[in-house]
Amino acid sequence: MSNLYILDHPLIQSKLTRLRDKETSNKEFRELCAEISSLICYEASRDLILDDINVSTPLGETKGKVLENKIGIIAILRTGIGMAEGILSLIPNAKLGHIGLYRDPNTLMPVEYFCKLPEHTENCQIFVLDPMLATGGTASAAIQFIKERGINNIKYLCLIAAPNGVKRVQADHPDVDIYTAALDEYLTENGYIFPGLGDVGRRLYGTK
User: Fewer CB in a 10 Å sphere around the end CB: N or C, the chain?
Assistant: First the structure.
């Protein structure tokens, strides 16, 4: 079973409170989303592998360490882009991909409409990004589409999650660990996480 990591670091929780506040402006919401995402990624990257190298300082020779893993981030459109900006500030050499899904009105099944993934993913740690893990349907489908392209070393990062979504991803993808700043109470009848953040797309970009 995949692990669920709820990150209770004081900086994350303080910023999350401001993110929840309905009075927070679009500008501040975007900034907070990026900041929290970078902190979540910091925790999620603790097990990355390091290689030893020699390095010359201004005073002489010493040993240093560099990342062995390549890093890829895949933002689920469109709100995952708001998380990607923060992670790229932390890991500027990471490769950025995007995946877009919509739900077919007849079959109710997720359909991929856009997909550009990082190339050369051997020995690559992939972080899949989406601010809200609600029902888990989009997250599970996105992960499945990514796996079908031969990418398997995946972690899922979100700002907040609902129990329904966590259970769905754990059931469908027991090899994918989930990192989040909060596990909220439940989903409303309209599918919003409660107490949640509201409409993340509108709060990030000012549009529905």
Answer: C
CATH class (in words) of the domain with range 4-205? alpha beta
For residue 61 the two structure tokens come to 């020779």
Write down the H helix ranges in the chain.
10-20, 26-44, 80-90, 137-147, 163-172, 200-205
Distance CA 199, CA 188 (A): 13
Question: Is residue 169 within 8 Å of 140, Cβ to Cβ?
Answer: yes
pLDDT band at 105 (very low <50, low <70, confident <90, very high): confident
Please give the Cα distance from 175 to 196 (Å, whole number): 26
Which structure tokens are listed for 164? 């329904």
- Please state the rounded mean pLDDT for residues 77-85: 94
Question: How many whole angstroms separate alpha carbon 23 and alpha carbon 55?
Answer: 49
Of the CA atoms within 13 Å of residue 187, those in its CB half-sphere come to 15
